[in-house]
Amino acid sequence: MKQIPLDLEYHEGLTEEDFFTSRCNEDAIKFVLNWHEWPNQALIIWGPRACGKTHLTHIWQSHVGGKFLSSPTFSTLNPSEIVDGAKALVIDDAHLIKNQTAFLHTLNLCRERKIPLLITMECPPQALDIELPDLLSRLKGIVAIEISSPQEDTLRLLLIKQCMDQHLPLSKDMIPYIINRIERSYSAIKRFVNHLRHLCLRQKKDPTLPLVKEALDRVSEELESA
User: Fold this and answer.
1) Integer Cα distance of 79 and 73 in angstroms
2) Helices 209-225 and 186-203 sit at what angle, rounded to 10 degrees?
């Protein structure tokens, strides 16, 4: 049997060509690529974990440049430091931002300076626990595009693509076996592929049904303890 190469790094392509487009995210990718038409030069993309939001921000950055800030990095800077010199700005996982005053000031500065802004979060703005009425009003005034949870056909294609990206060839009987036993979520598929990859690397061989079963068990254990 052909052995897979020993490569300990998880390679995840973040280019436009690497993006998996489906019914769940087609509106999001269209809006990202037509960023020059955004009202007020701002857009929110929201959806479940591992659905491709961060991938979309990298695609957008490839077109416009600018700064990328995760929520932990955001908390270490003041609004002026965030905005100064930025041609465009990404705020990733904005639902995790604790300093609402700094968030509001950053939004205001981007609007005043006409800096294009892309925000990602796991829920729509109105579902956030926001204490500042002005911040909630500002966020609700930004177009928000949802990436919905995957249907079974999307889940199957996503599984195949991610396994191909990681050089993990699945036999035809493995695919329905996995789909029938895994949680219907983007995160579960990503966890599964990561576990399967490490198991295959450890044993230096392509996926087998026992390895698939072990990877599924590990995903179930993680999701139960999360």
Assistant:
1) 12
2) 130
Q: Per-residue pLDDT tens for 189-208?
A: 999 999 999 999 999 999 99
Residue 225: predicted pLDDT: 84
pLDDT band (50, 70, 90) for residue 1: very low
* 74 burial level (CB within 10 Å; 0-12, 13-18, 19+): buried
Considering the chain, tell me which residue range(s) the CATH 3.40.50.300 domain(s) occupy.
26-146
Which tops the pLDDT comparison, 1 or 23?
23
d(CA 118, CA 156): 29
Digit-coded pLDDT (tens) for 112-133: 999 999 999 999 999 999 999 9
Residues of the chain with CATH 1.10.8: 152-225
pTM above 0.85, yes or no: yes
Q: How far apart are CA 21 and CA 32, in angstroms?
A: 13
Distances (CA, A) of 65 to 56, 88, 223: 13, 6, 36
Q: Are strands 89-92 and 117-121 parallel, antiparallel or unpaired?
A: parallel
**Beta pairing class for 144-146 and 42-46:** parallel
- CATH for 26-146 (3.40.50.300, 3.30.200.20, 3.30.70.260, 3.40.50.150): 3.40.50.300
171's tokens: 């036999």
